[in-house]
Write a sequence for this structure.
């Protein structure tokens, strides 16, 4: 071509052309985001945590900006990177909405990653996940089976009750789909829906019935799972499905007897997953039903005898079979077969099998004790297994197997076990040994010896009931008292610092039977040297001055020492020791020191009578001891009754958050701690509105989001005490101080229909007063559910402590303490709302108290 | 029903987490931390089962990865071991002699395979062949929509 024809421009040379083209391309081309594996490589290459954090933050910032720019092309890659970052532990909530956009896309890759993101980032607590429902509905109707599969999988993983209700119809339709791939997923999705919303079960019943006539193992196993869940949920459905037992038996038979099927084979067993599921369903159907159980007897026996046990697979099926045999109404021969299988498991080399056997035996030992007794020695061997779970199971099983014949041998092994046991076992083990000894001991001496061994072996981990049991037994067994006291003395003379319960029992026994210690003839003296009085007193001296002994132990010791003053001849040393305790820093010890010193001085003539030997204590059933503990707890809860429900709710909240219930015990106010209710939080001028607000504040525990919130509630700056228990104590002291004052202004706050409420006012500081509220019942019946609420104007601060109770008996009273802070020194007005139940009627009263004496505030 | 499945390395790094129940993120992290510490503290000769809260924990170590599942009280622990083994076999077949690096770099594929084996905490397919067939078909679907460039994320 001729350059002149085109208007030749000298600037148009190759370099410029290249440059122009490059710029144009740059403008058009977007920079591709970093690939996922490059990001992963970069993060793994980071050598310190700070380096990793910076890489992650940079990438997160980039990803966030691409979300803002609505980058459709690379969204899927960015979300994948975000999911990786999320797995490392970094927050990724900003990606939730983007996952939804991915799901809505038509590209399969987008959907795959989008649904994965939804399952990882969303759970039913997010609001965002409601938006998924529409996408799911569309995808459940997609012509592509894999898209439907994705949707079903996601629905099964994150279905909330609302989503379940919306989409149940679609899932039901898909359960009848001709495509087996979809049918099996729909079945499991239905299973999850039923778990979330049990009422929807009816919808799925028709489609479920046909699932068992399938050839496809996937559909079979999911169908069986669904049916099992339905039967466990509703007894009617259970009865309805009882008629499929023959079908299940047939399927199972085919599985066992059919030839090798490479597709489903696992180490020579044909489809163990399906077999186990069917066995479980048979168990559910056969429970408490003789006919159904009879129909499955044969197949269970067949499975039990034909299954190969060399690999774990076979043992899995045998395990499930044994569970089923034990649960249904099987015939005797079958049960023996099952226990024998378990016995074989017990000597298996594989730990897992042994564990599983012990577990199952524990469940069945009460049903079939004699069969299990045969394996007793193996079980005792398992007590020495290095694995802690196996040891625990063996211990529990051993206790279940104890009877009068084998008590001696069992106890020997168990005591050895107790000596070597971990601390967490010692408490439980020792209590169980004591129980067993009580029930089955051959004679008293053996019983006492065993208890002594328990106290020695378990040290400080022994529960309190063991101490009391031992003491009671010693006092009951008059013939052995001398012997046991000598034995106890032997241990006391040694160094027993970490065995407080032992010291307590020993000092009690020596105190009671000190004279026997010095004089009685005993048959098996072993190597115990009979002590002299001074030896005993020296040991006591050591015990009382040792800082490692607890206060309770010292209380026992001091009491015992005082008793010895009547049983020993020389009392000067004893008197000296006792009198030093009258200036002890511990109030319990000081009290005893002072009181016992009186017994040596002015009231010396009372001493022999007071300290004479106790009569044998009556036997309390050990079960009573336990219920006593429970009823104490119940009493505490009763005092709390208006607060009881709120406490449970907050407990439930904390459980959901993963908080331990034990933490709650420390934080939550119970009837012995103060509850703080600052009313000053409300913003209303009107007293009435304040009182309306009080309806929620009257319960001392508004449900808090976190345990920390609860702690803050109790750390009311007005009370300025972290430990609410000591708060109560100071409150108590303040109250007792007020009793000493002569004139305490009292006003009548309310007097109507037999209920009279008096306020006793006393000044605490310059601008705060304490009001003792006394509510008295002048009717002839009980006032129950008594609730007293108060509101003060905004300028005041009101704090209410918990009432003494909620029931006022006729002529009885209920008291409550209020504290009012008046920074502005204005006149106090108070509005009260009172409610109670009287003779089945609920009475609610409201009144205003204006007659507070103004001189209180100066 | 399986409550959750965790995969983590011997150093305590999480490689995969599948939860079959809704929990807030903080709780998931707390549970994960607690379990990882508990399981890594176990000696090699101990049995594969633990009691934890009201669940049974089944764990097994394959090379440098721990596979840990939490099941309910009435589930069969030995069967869970079999399920874990089946999952490992599937991964092995898919990646060809799988190692931890494969799972790190292709974690999304590990999830996809798990989702074809388990749904809602229960087994949905007992045939290895069918699971792998489904995965292969979906990979093909992914490729066809895009062309080759998009298959490697």
């Amino acid at each position: 071509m001729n350059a002149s024809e085109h208007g030749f421009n000298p600037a148009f040379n190759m370099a410029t052309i290249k440059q122009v083209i490059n710029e144009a391309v740059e403008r058009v081309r977007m920079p591709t985001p970093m690939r996922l594996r490059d990001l992963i490589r970069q993060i793994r290459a980071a050598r310190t945590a700070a380096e990793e954090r910076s890489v992650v933050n940079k990438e997160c910032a980039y990803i966030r900006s691409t979300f803002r720019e609505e980058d459709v092309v690379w969204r899927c890659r960015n979300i994948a990177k975000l999911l990786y970052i999320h797995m490392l532990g970094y927050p990724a909530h900003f990606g939730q909405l983007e996952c939804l956009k991915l799901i809505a896309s038509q590209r399969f890759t987008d959907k795959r990653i989008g649904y994965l993101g939804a399952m990882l980032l969303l759970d039913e607590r997010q609001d965002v996940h409601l938006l998924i429902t529409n996408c799911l509905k569309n995808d459940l109707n997609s012509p592509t089976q894999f898209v439907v599969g994705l949707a079903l999988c996601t629905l099964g993983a994150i279905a909330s009750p609302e989503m379940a209700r919306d989409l149940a119809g679609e899932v039901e339709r898909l359960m009848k789909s001709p495509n087996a791939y979809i049918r099996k997923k729909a079945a499991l999705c239905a299973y999850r829906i039923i778990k979330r919303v049990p009422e929807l079960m009816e919808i799925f019943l028709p489609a479920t019935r046909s699932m068992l006539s399938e050839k496809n193992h996937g559909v079979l196993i999911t169908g069986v799972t669904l049916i099992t869940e339905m039967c466990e949920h509703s007894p009617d459905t259970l009865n309805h499905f009882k008629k499929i037992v023959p079908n299940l038996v047939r399927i199972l038979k085919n599985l066992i007897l059919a030839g090798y099927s490479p597709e489903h084979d696992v180490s020579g067993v044909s489809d163990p997953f399906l077999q186990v599921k069917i066995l479980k369903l048979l168990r559910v159907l056969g429970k408490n039903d003789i006919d159904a159980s009879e129909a499955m007897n044969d197949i269970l026996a067949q499975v039990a005898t034909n299954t190969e046990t060399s690999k774990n697979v076979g043992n899995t099926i045998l395990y499930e079979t044994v569970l089923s045999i034990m649960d249904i109404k099987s015939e005797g021969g079958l049960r023996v077969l099952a226990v024998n299988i378990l016995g074989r498991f017990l000597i298996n080399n594989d730990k897992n099998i042994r564990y599983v056997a012990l577990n199952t035996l524990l469940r069945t030992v009460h049903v079939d004790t004699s069969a299990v007794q045969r394996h007793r020695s193996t079980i005792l061997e398992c007590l020495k297994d290095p694995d802690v779970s196996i040891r625990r199971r063996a211990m529990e099983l051993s206790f279940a197997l104890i009877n009068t014949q084998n008590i001696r041998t069992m106890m020997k092994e168990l005591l050895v076990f107790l000596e070597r046991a971990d601390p967490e076992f010692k408490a439980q083990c020792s209590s169980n040994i004591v129980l067993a000894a009580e029930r089955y001991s051959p004679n008293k001496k053996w019983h006492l010896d065993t208890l002594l061994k328990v106290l020695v072996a378990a040290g400080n981990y022994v529960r309190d009931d063991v101490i009391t049991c031992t003491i009671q037994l010693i006092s009951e067994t008059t013939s052995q008292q001398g012997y046991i006291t000598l034995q106890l003395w032997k241990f006391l003379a040694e160094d027993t610092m970490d065995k407080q319960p032992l010291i307590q029992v020993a000092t009690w026994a020596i105190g009671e039977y000190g004279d026997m210690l010095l004089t009685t003839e005993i048959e098996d003296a072993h190597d115990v040297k009979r002590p002299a009085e001074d030896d005993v007193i020296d040991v006591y001296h050591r015990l009382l001055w040792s800082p490692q002994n607890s206060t309770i132990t010292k209380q026992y010791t001091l009491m015992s020492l005082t008793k010895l003053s009547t049983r020993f001849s020389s009392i000067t040393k004893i008197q000296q020791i006792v009198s030093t305790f009258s200036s002890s820093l511990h109030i319990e010890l000081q009290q005893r020191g002072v009181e016992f010193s009186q017994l040596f001085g002015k009231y010396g003539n009372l001493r022999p009578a007071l300290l004479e030997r106790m009569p044998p204590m009556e036997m309390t059933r050990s079960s009573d001891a336990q219920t006593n503990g429970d009823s104490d707890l119940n009493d505490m809860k009763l005092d709390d009754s208006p607060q009881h429900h709120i406490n449970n709710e907050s407990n439930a909240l904390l459980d959901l958050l993963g908080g331990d219930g034990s933490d709650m015990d420390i934080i939550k106010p119970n009837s012995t701690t103060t509850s703080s209710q600052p009313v000053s939080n409300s913003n209303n001028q009107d007293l009435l509105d304040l009182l309306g607000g009080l309806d929620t504040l009257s319960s001392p525990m508004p449900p808090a989001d976190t345990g920390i919130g609860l702690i803050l509630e109790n750390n009311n700056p007005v009370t300025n005490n972290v430990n609410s228990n000591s708060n109560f104590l100071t409150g108590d002291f303040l109250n007792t101080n007020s009793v000493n004052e002569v004139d305490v202004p009292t006003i009548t706050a309310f007097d109507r229909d037999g209920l009279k409420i008096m306020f006793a006012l006393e000044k605490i500081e310059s601008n705060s007063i304490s009001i003792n509220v006394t509510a008295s019942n002048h009717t002839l019946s009980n006032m129950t559910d008594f609730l007293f609420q108060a509101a003060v104007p905004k300028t005041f601060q009101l704090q209410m402590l918990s009432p003494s109770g909620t029931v006022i008996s006729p002529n009885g009273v209920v008291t409550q303490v209020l504290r009012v802070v008046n920074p502005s020194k204005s006149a106090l007005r108070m509005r009260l709302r009172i409610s109670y139940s009287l003779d089945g009627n609920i009475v609610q009263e409201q009144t205003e108290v204006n007659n507070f004496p103004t001189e209180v505030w100066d | 029903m399986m409550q959750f499945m965790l995969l983590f390395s011997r150093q305590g790094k999480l490689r995969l987490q599948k939860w079959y129940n809704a929990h807030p993120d903080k709780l998931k992290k707390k549970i994960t931390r607690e379990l990882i510490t508990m399981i890594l503290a176990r000696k090699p000769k101990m049995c594969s089962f633990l009691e934890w809260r009201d669940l049974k924990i089944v764990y097994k170590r394959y090379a440098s990865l721990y596979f840990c599942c939490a099941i309910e009280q009435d589930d069969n622990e030995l069967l869970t071991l079999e399920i874990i083994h089946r999952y490992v076999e599937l991964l092995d077949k898919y990646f060809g002699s799988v190692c931890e690096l494969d799972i790190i770099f292709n974690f999304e594929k590990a999830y996809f395979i798990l989702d074809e084996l388990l749904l809602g905490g229960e087994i949905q397919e007992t045939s290895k062949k069918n699971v792998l067939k489904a995965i292969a078909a979906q990979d093909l679907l992914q490729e066809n929509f895009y062309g080759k460039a998009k298959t490697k994320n």
Summary: Residues 88 and 98 of chain B are 8 Å apart (CA to CA).
